[in-house]
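Notebook, student rotation project (T.W.).
Task set for the rotation: take a protein with a known small-molecule partner, predict the structure of the complex, and write up what can be learned from the model alone. Partner molecule chosen: nicotinamide-adenine-dinucleotide. Sequence and SMILES entered below by T.W., checked by me.
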Amino acid sequence: MPQINIMLKAGSYPVVIGNRIDNKFLSLLKTNAQNCRLFVFFDARFYALHGKKIESLLESKKQILESFVIPSGEKSKSASALERIYDFLLDSKISRDDFILACGGGVTTDLVGYAAATTLRGIRWGAVSTTLLGMVDAAIGGKTGINHESGKNLIGAFWQPSFVICNTAHLQTLPEREMIAGLGEVIKYGGLIGNDLINEIEKFLKKGDLYDTRALEKLINLSVRYKGSIVAQDEREKNIRMFLNLGHTFGHAIEKTLGYGKLLHGEAIIIGLLAAVILSRKVNRTSAKALYRYESLLKKCLRFLPYFPLKPAELLKNMQIDKKRFGQELRFVLLKRPGKPFIASGLKPKLIIDSVKECLALYKAEGR
Ligand SMILES: NC(=O)c1ccc[n+]([C@@H]2O[C@H](COP(=O)([O-])OP(=O)(O)OC[C@H]3O[C@@H](n4cnc5c(N)ncnc54)[C@H](O)[C@@H]3O)[C@@H](O)[C@H]2O)c1
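Predicted structure of the complex:
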């Protein structure tokens, strides 16, 4: 059972990965929430599939339990959903010593983590992350928050959990599209880490079983280890944490151009990663050979994605608007080769336009 400790200045916390980790989960709860009340929040879909099992696990240990179910979907990352959580916690007279548990994907851990960060100026919390994207990304690193009319994740706080549980048995019920979306972020880490992870992703895809728990454990382990090491060096995203945005400048613009909810975030990231790799080789021609294998992997993954027509000009416009609005210049995380990211700005527009066109033509040909 792999355990990765996220080492931060204020202390460390464990991320436990595996499919027989109930005892470890209970012992972490015992350490963190023994003589206090435990407030458990569930994503609704996850609750319907696994909620009773978790509740009876907790009840068997006489954990004092107050459960709250959150409607599934991005809409729950809103001020109104947050308000309902505040009402529940404050009506239940939560105290500073109590403990909050968030069980769900990134929506739940972002929302509940933010409620934990802000209620009574900060309550300790733990995450049972239940989606692949949550396990490798959203639940790791302490970024919590909600969306605002002006954009995604604009209200938030850094508030680290006391532990994160990644039970690969929970992934068995995750829809295939959600698995692919999570895989998008794993492939991003492949670009950042290099061949160690790329080899594992290739093996995983070759085997063709998206729900192979052993293989998933490896992918999650390598991804969390990498994200943990970056967060440890740059908890507040002042410098190298930005590398984690590989593929995201394009990916966010794709989501925005299509309208949120058509492609899942991680699906858009797969296309965004391909655009970033194409741009990388145009910016630095000597990288072409080194990037060939990673680029081929990304091209192969396009076949998992539903196809929606996208106009390059609209995508480029959205990329510019978003940045200008926040007074930033257009910056990209690019690769010299897998494992060697760098930040590029002030690029010639033609290079960006050509990369977007090339990438969208491939998506059109391969998407389904
Ligand atoms: N905080 C961060 O650092 C960070 C990083 C990346 C993404 N995010 C955020 O994460 C969110 C996306 O997370 P997500 O992809 O996990 O989405 P999600 O939380 O909406 O979950 C995806 C879907 O899977 C369902 N689900 C969850 N667990 C399940 C299970 N075990 N079996 C069956 N169904 C299950 C949910 O009900 C939902 O329909 C976005 O809001 C994004 O902004 C945050």
